[in-house]
Amino acid sequence: MLSHTNPVMIFKAFIVVDSSWYLTGLVAKIPPIVKPEEANIIALVQKNAPPTLILHGDNDKIVNVNTVRNFTRKMKAFGNNCTLIEYKNQPHGFFNYGRGNNENYYHTMSAIDSFLKKIDFLSPFPETYRRRNEQ
């Protein structure tokens, strides 16, 4: 079990926000909390970041997948555990429950579960499962 930090799961990652992001869609109606040039998570990457799983569609028109790839590369360059799972031809929010037949929703939930088990954050068998089957 991890003792020093909790893992991070990122869906539709806003890694870098540029000024064009504020000019599109509904976001244009929301005043920015920070200046776009200050909203660059890549610049904040350092050693000992929490284990991170990113689930991202490669056809995301809001957050370019190359930005997420750059973030992943920088995390790894600093020795951090960062896993990017790209979903082919999928748009922003592809995993939302109720989209299509929910295949992507269930796959992302399964990927999270597998990642958390891999880093020993979750037990492969929850306590309730063990108690029920030990009787």
How would you explain this protein's 3D organization?
By secondary structure, this protein is an alpha/beta fold. It has a single domain, classed as Alpha/Beta hydrolase fold, catalytic domain (Rossmann fold), CATH 3.40.50.1820. About 25% of the residues lie in helices and about 10% in strands. The protein has helices at about 65-75, 105-120, 125-135; strands spanning about 10, 50-55, 80-85. It has a 3-stranded parallel sheet, with helices on both faces. α1 (about 65-75) links the parallel β2 and β3. It is flat and about 35 Å long. The model is unreliable at about 20-30 (pLDDT under 50).
How many beta strands in the DSSP annotation?
3
Share in helix: 25-40%
CATH architecture: 3-Layer(aba) Sandwich
Total domains, how many? 1
Strand residue percentage: 5-15%
Any idea what the radius of gyration is? 17 Å
Oligomer: single chain
Give the distance, in angstroms, between the N- and C-terminal Cα atoms: 25 Å
CATH topology type: Rossmann fold
Element pattern in H and E:
EEHEHH
Based on secondary structure, the structural category is: alpha/beta
Q: What is the CATH top level name? A: Alpha Beta
Mean pLDDT: 78
Low-confidence stretches: 19-29
Biggest sheet, in brief?
3 strands, parallel
With helices defined by DSSP (H or I, 4 residues minimum), what is the helix count?
3
Q: Find the CATH superfamily.
A: Alpha/Beta hydrolase fold, catalytic domain
| Major sheet: arrangement of strands | 1-2-3
Large-scale geometry: flat
